[in-house]
Amino acid sequence: MNRLITWFALITVLGLAGCGFRPLYGETATSAAVTADLESVSVDPMRSQIGVELRNHLIDRLTPTGQRGSARYRLAVEIEETRLGAAVRLDASITRYNYRLTANYQLIDAETGDILFAGSSFSDVPYDVVESQLATVYSRFDAESRAAEAVSEDIKIRLALFFDSHRTETALLTASPAS
Fold first, then answer.
1. Which of 88, 90, 62 is nearest to 75 (CA)?
2. Which residues in 45-67 are b (16+ Cβ under 10 Å) and which e?
3. β-bridge pairing 73-88 and 41-43
4. 3 state SS of 105
């Protein structure tokens, strides 16, 4: 049985090595370059309270060591909030909501104004409505905060994948064929 497990693990590792799999995070030359690209993104201001929170989460994730003086890229984000009643009592009162935060974003070249990458990210977070209004308000704020955190993480991952794939494509285009 141990031999079977060992062979299975070996075949799995060899299969992953052969398919071109490589981690996005780790100690590689591209991860340092991707980190530098992420740190050169400036996040445009947003007007709503949840927009300010989302912007702060994005800044914390993209530039954990602090924003650079001049950014090569701008991230423009438009958000949309939706609350949908999910649990209804017999008297038609709603006891649970699903809060959805949707962010449509564009990565813009700061010098030329060209849109380099665009996408959409969302997060659904439920929250309860209880008899205490204060507890319900805190529950709603917590749901909004968790949604903003999840959306910011998703945007960061998508931007990192964009920068990594863009760097890989550029490297393939500039590589000279072997003669």
1. 62
2. ebeeebbebbbebbbebbbeeee
3. parallel
4. strand
Domain chopping of the chain, boundaries: 29-173
Q: What are 57-103's pLDDT values in tens digits?
A: 999 999 887 766 678 999 999 999 999 887 777 777 788 889 999 99
Q: The whole model's pTM is what?
A: 0.75
Residues 61 and 152: beta-carbon distance below 8 Å: yes
- The dihedral formed by the CA atoms of 57, 61, 167 and 74, expressed in degrees to the nearest 10: 40
Task: Give me the half-sphere count of Cα atoms (radius 13 Å) on the Cβ side of residue 139.
Answer: 16
> Using alpha carbons only, what angle is made at residue 131 by residues 125 and 134, rounded to the nearest 5 degrees?
70
Q: Is the domain 29-173 a CATH 3.30.365.10 member?
A: no
Tokens 């070996």 belong to: 10
